[in-house]
Amino acid sequence: MNSAPIPSPSPRARALAGLTGLTAIAALVLQYALLLQSVGATAGTGQALLRLLGYFTILSNIGVAAVCLARLRGRRDGMAAPAASAAVALYIGITGLVYVLVLRGLWHPQGAQWWADTGLHYIVPGLYLLGWLTGPHGCLRWRQLGWALLFPAIYLGWALLVGRWSGQYPYPFLDLAALGAATVARYALVVGLAFVALGALLWRIDARLGARNAVSTRR
Fold it and tell me: Is the dihedral of CA 177, 181, 186, 189 positive or negative?
């Protein structure tokens, strides 16, 4: 395991973090504004906010914004620490993966909704994963992956509560009323396995890149 101190973000890394964070914030604000126009107009701002925070997409993009703002400030701890940054890479990676493989064909957003959708599901995941891959590596421990996987498990309970409170579940594969508990459990298991697989891949990539960088430094 590489025990070298974590370097401060380079100017290029800060610039990429700034672009990624700004894109995430802009997409989040736009999505909330659109929800205020639709859900908020009939059910109130509180219901619109509840619906917004019920989406894993939104929570993962908030995580991206938090990490990027920390990097932009030159931080190396907190949300910019290796474990937190990698966890957010896992979350935003799953956001993009599930959307492309499962959800993209279920609707066809237009206008401002298309811009919000593209930012949240395509641009932000791509930019953030690029920044993570080109950052420092070799500091992650496998037990940290276990902690990172707790958040999706907690989210599952939160999403089901949001669906019960609001009458609309964040994702169709979590719709208890339409699918029943057994089917939702099967879908949740599949997504959970995707989290484990992608997390293991990211942690393995970190170890490989860390070892390669260590060899390059000794030469």
Answer: positive
Quote the pLDDT of residue 4: 56
The pLDDT value given to residue 59: 98
pLDDT for the residue 219: 53
Q: Give the residues of the chain that fall short of pLDDT 70.
A: 1-5, 213-219
Residue bearing tokens 């395991």: 1
Q: pLDDT at position 77, please?
A: 87
Q: For helices 11-43 and 111-118, give the axis angle rounded to 10 degrees.
A: 140
The full DSSP string for 72-138 is: HTT--SGGGSHHHHHHHHHHHHHHHHHIIIIIGGG----HHHHHHHHIIIIIHHHHHHHHHHTS--S
Residue 198, C-beta contacts closer than 8 angstroms, at least 6 positions apart: 90, 93, 94, 97
Other beta carbons within 10 Å of 153:
11
Rounded-to-integer distance, Cα 30 and Cα 130, Å = 24
Burial 207-218, CB ≥16 within 10 A → b, else e: bebbeeeeeeee
**pLDDT at residue 5, as a whole number:** 64
Write the single-letter amino acid at 45. T
